[in-house]
Amino acid sequence: VGAHREGRFEDAARIFGEYLDLCPGLCKVVHNNRAGSLLRLGRYAEAVRDADACLRIDRTWEKGWLRKVEALRASGRATEALDVALDGAKSLSASAKLQEQVDALLSLPENEGFLTGASADFVDRKGKIFCASCSAVSECRHGAAGSHGEFLYCKPDGSASCGSVRYCSEKCRSADRLQHSKSCRDLRRVDSICRVFETGRVWMGHAEEGEPRFVVRVDGKLAFAFPRGLGDLSGQTGRITDLQSWARLAAESERPIATDASSQALSAPRFQSIMCGAPGSFQSPEDELLHARATDVASYPLTIWRALQRFGLTDGGRRESLVIHVVGAEASREGLAHAHVGPILGSLLGPRQRLLVASIGPLYLEGEGAASMLQTMKLWREGSGSGFMHQPHRMGYAEYLASPFYEKPDLVMFFHPGFHDGTYPWWPTLQFLMHEDVPIALTSFSESDFLKNQDMAQSELFRTRVQFGGTPEEALNPFESAFPTPFVVGESRLRYPNRYLAGWCGMQERFPKGGGMFDAGHAEVMAMSLCRNVDAATSARERYVLQARGRSYLEFAEALGKTRPPAEGMLRDTSPELWGMVLRTLDARD
């Protein structure tokens, strides 16, 4: 802070960054202060990212909203700054400072004609606002909107507004009352979903020039409407080679995919024609966008299917059951797609195969309650439950391993884990799974990400056996999503989810040599070696990574101590010095 006050902004940004390396994502004040230094240096995109980090930590913090507005306005993005100021003012209704920002931004020439309170549902690519009942406000037959063009919310039953539909006048709202009352409940559900999964709103302001923009509620409707009523496709899986042909097969078989699309989003025939198209063949940017979003929803369950195929686990129903762990799951990614895993995999595997999918991650959705989940788990183990069961677990894998919910997996699936990164301590999870000879499948966004994961897997600590996808060409996933996501929110560089798919199983050589089971003793030794290396670390980031890995190994030691005794004689041949040497070598390569 002192460096910033003295005008040494470069030094201030560096010092704040070193602090954040020690505890990333935890301190909103440091992110906010670094954003201030970066603004003085003219590094606006980085300042916006720090402001976003503030809001991810605490969306009720006024300074975070103000900093993001300041950063966007400084970078010449006045319309986006206004949009953020409006969101902040809505979230913090008592914030006089944010309302002052709204008023100031509305007076700028860039925001001339901007209508406050406008929902994303009614913003087209040129920024015009539409009334749900008549037409654009400028052509409205029943009078202009409020003092700043404010729209009225729907109130079909006299209760609180649903926030999904806006009207420019009381007359328009009354005219639409009957029609909207039929769909208001669905719109409210979609709106609540979109408050959790904000991908669509982020992209409203960051679409590349010439690329179609989309609105968050169409995104939500489509995501939740996609895989209904697929029927049994297990006898025709030989014809399924990529996402497009899979969609065509479903359409040709007259299996309506979206008959119950919420709020009349799409009719089944139109949706099927969109799903069966190819990029570049659509008549409108909106249809091309809907196609891309549909592939994104389907990509996650179909990538699991592809991994099962490559590991030889789709063997014509000879297995009575399959257990799949989706590890490192997040609410904003796997959480959005998990509702479709059962219908799609069930259609492909056939009605006789029982399927359990456990989604595990500290950032995942909460389950329905331990007692209820244990009861359904008991029924499934007894073979009397339903053919498909999904269980969400908001916890780390070590905690799950020691829980009564644990069931040994036939496949463990990681979506974009970035094993090589060091931000998340994946080492003990991977060592455990490799020593257990559990099939592991992982996806990567880019070739660079893919190659780094493969290099790490062949280091002395793992030496895994690559079962498929050893090179970028072999790892290309036919079920890649066609829906772009940003590398960093606020930047225009794009990447596509699940582009590469690789499979690992077991180890070429046990580590330490001759070792078999990865037990609690191994985990303890690893943790101790890592902790001894913390003092020798040369940077704040290296210390953070070592400490995080050490804690993770201790968690695994505790979990394995509860579930299995140390293997006889296993630690007798284990040298802590050897482990320390290998770890230092590996860390030097990071």
Number of helices: 24
Examine the coordinates and then state which fold CATH places here, giving the name of the CATH topology of the largest domain. Rossmann fold
Percent of residues in helices comes to 40-55%
CATH first level of the largest domain: which class?
Answer: Alpha Beta
Number of strands: 11
The overall average pLDDT, rounded, is 67
Which residues sit in consecutive blocks of at least 5 with pLDDT less than 50?
Answer: 113-133, 135-151, 153-164, 189-269, 488-492, 568-576
When the domains are counted, the total is: 4
Round the Cα radius of gyration to an integer and report it: 26 Å
Strand content: 5-15%
Class derived from helix and strand content: alpha/beta
What composes the largest sheet?
7 strands, mixed
Indicate the CATH architecture of the largest domain.
3-Layer(aba) Sandwich
Tell me the overall shape.
globular
- State the distance separating the first and last CA atoms: 31 Å
Strand arrangement, largest sheet?
5-4-3-6-7-11-8
Domain Mitochondrial splicing suppressor 51-like C-terminal: 301-484
Protein name: Mitochondrial splicing suppressor 51-like C-terminal domain-containing protein
Pfam families: MSS51_C (PF20179)
Organism: Alexandrium catenella (Red tide dinoflagellate)
List keywords for this structure.
alpha/beta, 590 residues, 8% strand, 4 domains, Serine Threonine Protein Phosphatase 5, Tetratricopeptide repeat, single chain, Rossmann fold, two-stranded antiparallel ribbon, 24 helices
